[in-house]
Amino acid sequence: MTNEITANICVIGGGSGGLSVAAGASQMGAEVVLVEGAKMGGDCLNYGCVPSKSMIAAANAAHAIRSADRFGIDAAEPNVDFRKVHDHVHGVIGAIAPHDSVERFEGLGVRVIQEKGKFVGPNRVQAGDTVITAKRIVVSTGSHAGVPPIPGLDSVPYLTNETVFDRTEAPAHLLVIGGGPIGSELSQAHRRLGCDVTILDIAKTLNNDDPELTEVVRTRMLKEGIVIREEIEILSVEKDGAGVAVNIRDNGKEERVTGSDLLVAAGRVPNLDGLDLEAAGIEYDRRGIKVDARLRTTNKKVFAIGDAAGSFQFTHVAGYHAGIVIRNVLFRLPAKVDYSALPWVTYTDPELAHVGLTEKQAREKHGDIRILRHPFAENDRAQAERDTEGLAKIVTTAKGVIVGASIVGPHAGELIQPWILPIQKKMKIGAVAGLIIPYPTLGEVSKRAAGSFYTPKLFSEKTKKIVRFLSKLG
Ligand SMILES: Cc1cc2nc3c(=O)[nH]c(=O)nc-3n(C[C@H](O)[C@H](O)[C@H](O)COP(=O)(O)OP(=O)(O)OC[C@H]3O[C@@H](n4cnc5c(N)ncnc54)[C@H](O)[C@@H]3O)c2cc1C
């Protein structure tokens, strides 16, 4: 027998996006039903951002011991206890989990149903034996690791982001299919925790970012002993004793690359199976649910957000989407997404951060642009920290309007943040060049890059003539 209930908003999926909608809407007085088919907190908490950044923190601690000699302190090969690293990672998840828990959301007044949801009509969702009729429905079902159609892959055990953090023993040699942000972060983390690592990619590693900056990360990864095989063909995968072998073709030559374990990090697939989107007239393709700028699906009473909507797959985007939906649904405002000042960070060392347009995009859009650079090697704090690899690269129009910023270097994820506001507000470079920045800080790279916009004018013959003339006046 089915249990029929009604709600103002039914949210399917209790991850980064869905939880933000549910918490916001219920605190504003809406009746909210949240349907979650697995773990509250979704990918970010359980299999994504939180465990990966926790593992990276452990890996960086190991690296600090290994590289302490740059400060005159004896370096040593750290004794990594992988089980304890596992416990640390899961301890962090456990510390954050109460914030995303059923108890917390029920305390906020949300009715949580721990079942998988599917559409049974344009405004009706079934979850277990409950059918929810809602004025508005939000699909926030996230994504999972895509598994490329490589012959033999289904015949070997392989890890994905859902299983890699469960390991209590270090893989001796981890083969990683995919050198994007997830593959690169996890490769460097495992390398620093003492594993041999080989990245296999059909394209260039980190190829969504500016190649001038990704090269800095790539060089560091190579220096740390990660083997990078990029722009190769992956022909097949097979068992190799207790391990695994990947057969590749590199520049026409066939090779067999062997390792103990295989991690697949080759893109993401939206979680749409079993949702019966057709029952609600919702269109989708392999990238995700089709949405307009207000995040409405082809059924205007249903919104799709986060990874399921297939745009930029980040937790902060899912959270941003949640805010757009709340404004549309609760305040009836026609709020639309605007990605012009969207930042993202890859948490390798050095970190790689970006906001706005890349150089290539800016050239296509604005034609005449200025590229401003400042290297960390010329930053006194970076010298003191002996962490001088990387640069800030800022893109402006010819008139100095800031349109993009990319930073590769220490703490780039923090250093990119002051660039978000000027790009969003279409400010000119003088606003950053004129700031007083505390000395010695890494943030000075941004001010120095900004200041370089004026270098050609300041040191021109015309300026010199004016200065000479004014000096003569006394
Ligand atoms: C290894 C890794 C590292 C990452 N690191 C970062 C990072 O550092 N920074 C960053 O911004 N992003 C990062 N991401 C991306 C980030 O995790 C996602 O973009 C984010 O979780 C998307 O939020 P979401 O709400 O769309 O989906 P999720 O948070 O995944 O939530 C979807 C939820 O829906 C549930 N669900 C699915 N189908 C159904 C159904 N039919 N019925 C009911 N429930 C359902 C799922 O169980 C899940 O709980 C990382 C991802 C990975 C894999």
Spell out the blueprint of helices and strands.
Elements (H helix, E strand, L loop, with lengths): L2 E10 L3 H12 L4 E4 L6 H5 L2 H18 L15 H15 L5 H6 L3 E3 L3 E5 L2 E4 L2 E10 L3 E3 L27 E5 L3 H12 L3 E5 L10 H13 L3 E3 L3 E8 L2 E8 L2 E7 L1 E4 L3 E3 L13 E2 L2 E2 L12 E3 L10 H16 L12 E4 L4 E6 L2 H8 L2 E7 L4 H5 L6 E7 L4 E8 L2 H4 L4 H5 L5 H4 L10 H8 L3 H4 L2 H12 L2
Parallel strand pairs: 1-2, 1-6, 2-3, 6-18, 8-9, 8-14, 9-10
Antiparallel strand pairs: 4-5, 5-6, 7-15, 11-12, 12-13, 16-17, 19-20, 20-23, 21-22, 22-23
Helix pairs in contact: 1-8, 3-4, 3-6
The chain binds flavin-adenine dinucleotide.
The site of flavin-adenine dinucleotide has 38 residues, from helix 1, helix 2, helix 3 and helix 8.
Structural class: alpha/beta
Oligomeric composition of the shown chains? single chain
- Spatial separation of the terminal alpha carbons: 96 Å
- The low-confidence parts are none
- What is the C-alpha radius of gyration, as a whole number of Å? 25 Å
Bound molecules: flavin-adenine dinucleotide
- Tell how many strands the DSSP assignment holds: 23
Mean pLDDT rating:
97
Q: How big a fraction of the residues is strand?
A: 25-35%
Q: Please state the overall shape, judged from the principal axes of the Cα atoms.
A: globular
What is the makeup of the main sheet? 7 strands, mixed
| Tally of contiguous helical segments | 16
Q: How much helix, percentage-wise, in residues?
A: 25-40%
